[in-house]
Amino acid sequence: MPHISIATWNINSVRVRADHIARFVSEHQPDVLCLQEIKCRNEEFPSKAFSSMGLRYVNVIGQKGSHGVAIASKHPLQVIQAPTLCPRSEARVAAVAAKGITIHNLYVPAGGEEPDPVGNDKFAHKLEVLARMKAHYAAAPKGRPTLLVGDLNIAPGEHDVWSHKQLLNVVSHTPVETEGLEAVRAAGDFVDVARALKPDPEKLYSWWSYRGDWKTANRGRRLDHIWATPGLAERCDRIEFIGAPRGWDRPSDHIPVMARFSI
Fold it and tell me: How far apart are CA 96 and CA 77, in angstroms?
């Protein structure tokens, strides 16, 4: 049976880490690669390098110096209308169709340091994006095979962080964020395929801070997600958290997450 593999990765600068991407693509052969935080304008995106990797089709939503998302694929992409989720019009959403699957690639704001929407406008911004996500996916037509992937900057469950108790008041794992993200998931009737295939209490992480020895401490969080509509989720037979790139020279603080679906 034919399959399609979808990977998501916050690359933290596509030009700085183009060699990391090439190595990952060579070793794991994703059909579609969704990137966040590409940190370049559309015309600066290294499309030729992606073409040489076999990812000839690209959809880039760039921005100077920060943010930015891109989708690169072995298969032709149909660019579709992306939902308006960011009130600041930052480059945080890309939307395409590939092989009959709608793919939304999202980069949710990190939210700053303090989980206080009154005193921290970055956190207020994050909560507004979550509210817009909930409204959009609640109203969206159901039935079409759809993936929502990306750096959602929230570790939703107790086993998605190194210490649930110690991180309850830390941005990315506060109750207002985790409950907000769950409301988005429920509104869109999405399945979190990582937890469908790797249920609790297995620890799953996709991000480790640059501070200290990340590998020894292993204080990770699962910030990067692949969600699927129910019929598509039933066709997911594999999901991988590919940790090796976190140990490469000058790495992103995120690792790739890749899922495979029968088509």
Answer: 6
Structure tokens at 75: 């298969």
Q: Tell me the torsion sign for CA atoms 62, 107, 79, 255.
A: positive
Domains of the chain (ranges, CATH numbers): 3-262 (3.60.10.10)
Contact 126, 108 (CB under 8 A): yes
User: pTM of whole model > 0.85?
Assistant: yes
Q: What angle do CA 96, 97, 99 make, to 5 degrees?
A: 145
Q: What is the DSSP letter of 119?
A: T
Give the C-alpha separation, 144 to 128, whole Å: 26
Q: Kindly provide the residue ranges of all beta strands, DSSP E only, lying in the chain, ordered along the sequence.
A: 3-10, 32-36, 57-61, 69-73, 78-79, 93-98, 101-107, 146-151, 191-192, 207-208, 220-221, 224-228, 236-241, 257-262
Angle between helices 121-139 and 175-187 (to 10 degrees): 20
Residues 6+ apart with CB under 8 A from 89: none
Q: What is the pLDDT of residues 148-194, one digit of tens each?
A: 999 999 999 999 999 999 999 999 999 999 999 999 999 999 999 99
From the centroid of its chain, how far is CA 190?
Answer: 14
Using alpha carbons, select from 196, 213, 214 the residue that is nearest to residue 205.
Answer: 214
